[in-house]
Amino acid sequence: MGKLGILLVIVLGAIAVAQLVRVYEHSLKLKKTGEHDINDRDNNLNAWLMLLFMIFQFGGFIYLMLAYGWTGRGPSASLEGEETDWLLNLNFVIIIAIFFLTNFLLFYFSYKYVRKPGVRATYFPHNNKLEMIWTVVPACVLAVIIILGLRSWNNLTSPSGDGAVVIELYSKQFDWTARYAGEDNVLGKYDYKLTTGTNELGILTAKTIEDAIVEREKKVNAINKLLSNADTVLSDSLVEAQEFTLSHNERILRSLYQLKQNHNKEVDKNAEDDIIVKGTLVLCVGQEYEFNFRSMDVIHSAYFPHFRAQINTVPGMTTRTKFTPSITTAEMREIKNDPKFKYVLMCNKICGKAHYKMKMDIEVLSKAEYAAWLAGKKKETFKLKYGIAPAEGGDDMAKEDGSNSGEDMPAEDATGEAAPIKKEDEI
Amino acid sequence: MGSHAHDSHDHGHAHHEEHHHEENFVSKYIFSHDHKMIGKQFLMTAVFMGLVAMMLSILFRIQLAWPGESSDFLNLFLGDRWAPKGILDQNMYLGLVTIHGTIMVFFLLTGGLSGTFSNILIPLQLGARDMASGFLNMLSYWFFFISSVLMLISLFVETGPAMAGWTVYPPLSALPKAVPGSGLGMTLWLFSMAIFIAGSLIGSLNYIVTVLNLRTKGMTMTRMPLTIWAFFVTAILGVLSFPVLLSAALLLIMDRLAGTSFYLSDIIVGDEMLSNHGGSPILFQHLFWFLGHPEVYIVLLPALGLSSEIIATNARKPIFGYKAMIGSILAIGFLSFIVWGHHMFITGMNPFLGSVFVFTTLLIAIPSAVKVFNYITTLWKGSLVFTPAMLFAIGLVSTFITGGVTGIILADSALDIAIHDTYFVVAHFHIVMGMSAVLGMFAGVYHWFPKMYGRMLNTRLGYVHFWITIIGAYGVFFPMHFVGLAGAPRRYYDYSVQRLR
Prior knowledge:
heterodimer, A: 427 residues, alpha+beta, 3 domains, 10 strands, B: mainly alpha, Cytochrome C Oxidase, Chain A, two-stranded antiparallel ribbon, 2 strands
């Protein structure tokens, strides 16, 4: 109850202050001083407090500035971020100047022009020249800010160069999956309806379509069987629910048939060399990257604080961003003097219970290290990985009705990441 | 005194008798048509809601201060379900954050400021006898009251209150499988907001009609007090922007209850593959922020209007640049409609569209600067009397500056990328929207309390109140800027956790 105690003390303290002031007021009443006229002593006291508060405000700000700086996360780890940091610093210089100037004027005038006996307020209702000045000057400053800001914005959002390596980041509650575009540097196509236990990202190839259809047909058949089985007795509401599920599944099945019909096998090769990576996103220093983003369930936001990059991942559409890592993890560890430092990709859009844990480590390697890592991944292309165990999808089928379950999948992926959450949910 | 009584007696002689009979307890204090009483009702309800929202913020702040530690009194407030063993549940954390934001923005700052002071001051300062329609005015309050009750009820629902943040972005807010609060809690949230919007619209229309038609003889538009100008523009903003939120809410209700696909597309959630296709979650954000940004000024303008009056009065000077002040209110009001995209720079919308919003957003800094400098010049060579109201009004100008300048950073899309949705944003809007509006509300209450209740508030307690408030406000929200710059995302339950595992 210690914390509640602290709260109670604060509340009681406030009440005590209030009571003391009341006693004071009553004693004044006895002295027959007007209770509600602001006397000079109070007035001057407040004028002084205004000045003191200004010192507190400025002092506090300068202290925080010195202690944390305005880039508390260290130097930018990407080339693009350096431009952002430069612009941020420039903007900060401008706004801090405005902050000091206007707050100073406000509090200093409050202090200086406090009511004094015999001094009357000056009648000064307007002055066109002054008003013109503080319309035009801010406008000019803003013009500079806008022009510089838009220049950076165009640089940051422009298409990436031809040499950029393409990576897709796929988000779902509550983890990230990376898909490297492989040797051809073209991501394979996808369709969310193809998402199964073995094809988590819904990648589109002739085989995945076939598997998804088989799986969906099994589901439809199972429900049909249940509904036509004369031995089982189902309540009306249960029948209704099953019929609803049936029509839903049949609808998906129909669009899967359509997908199969329109499928062009030419595009399969784009998908077959893709490499799916979980856990840590590995990047190469000095290499420009083009990131594509997708989301399985709700809106997430891919936030790379060290690289000064961020973009939302939106279900139903792809988003993109780009950056070029400029400092390897090892170098950054030296700069930060922290042997455990890791770059991180965080979710930065409220997405549910474990939002705060939805992170992915990022490791930036030197060129040689990266080449070695990539060589090790050659055996993990989608073709090999998916081809090895084509029948696995069938096993999932046995479990309840959800082989495409977002929450079930990670459990099978050896990481077991989302599984504990599900348990808690059910409780 | 005598002549006054005589006047009013003469005035309403014909209706005097029946009026007298009507004034029972219910018609005087509950279903009152009297603008002063309705204003007080708004004030009381809003202050109560504000206290509730403040309590909620203390509950989740305790989790942030002592993450993972047991605070057994949380169990006392939230029970075993939402605070087992005194540790706040992760879902409930999001629920508390959501309802704190919703109540503060809509129920305290919108209802409390515009509702209270528009009602009390518009007829008094215009020389009108009452609002254009006393009945609609009453209706506006009772809609507000019902929506407040609904919002509070949602806190006690089994699956918890809405948990998708106060901006309730779908799909999170549309899918109960994604977060439990998106079940009944979210439904109640949406219905509460729909009723709130209806009430707010009725009120706003009433204010506009009153200002346009019921001004006393000689009270031309360019002679109106700046408070009235602020309320007038606020009401116009409300009438033009709130219906858009209503439509957004209705479409979301349809998506949730009728299976439409306005905001949903290609989603797999839990173990279910949804067949919704072709909708766009971004559409909701456009609709939401089309209200959401004017909403900031719906909250701020009344506070600025009140402080104009209070600063001028207590500096013993007319406000500097009256016409420029009106111009800047109108400019802010107009610009607030074409800047909503600055909340969405990183949603993946077209970068060119982003550039347009950068431009329009930064333009707002100009009328805001004019207002600030006009306040400061009003103080210059004045004869300042520091009533508590005056202190709060000066505090408002200070937070308006401090929070306003960080807006320049956030409006700059290139910089927003790096700090979007971090604590920098939280610090920014708590100072500029939260604190400025709350300080303005306090200033207004201290200044007009005698007019409302026929007695003064204690001056010295007012001083204590102000200095604790302003120091506390800066103490809480100033350091948050630095936390945000260091990269701390908002709405995180626990910052000490490295990864999900």
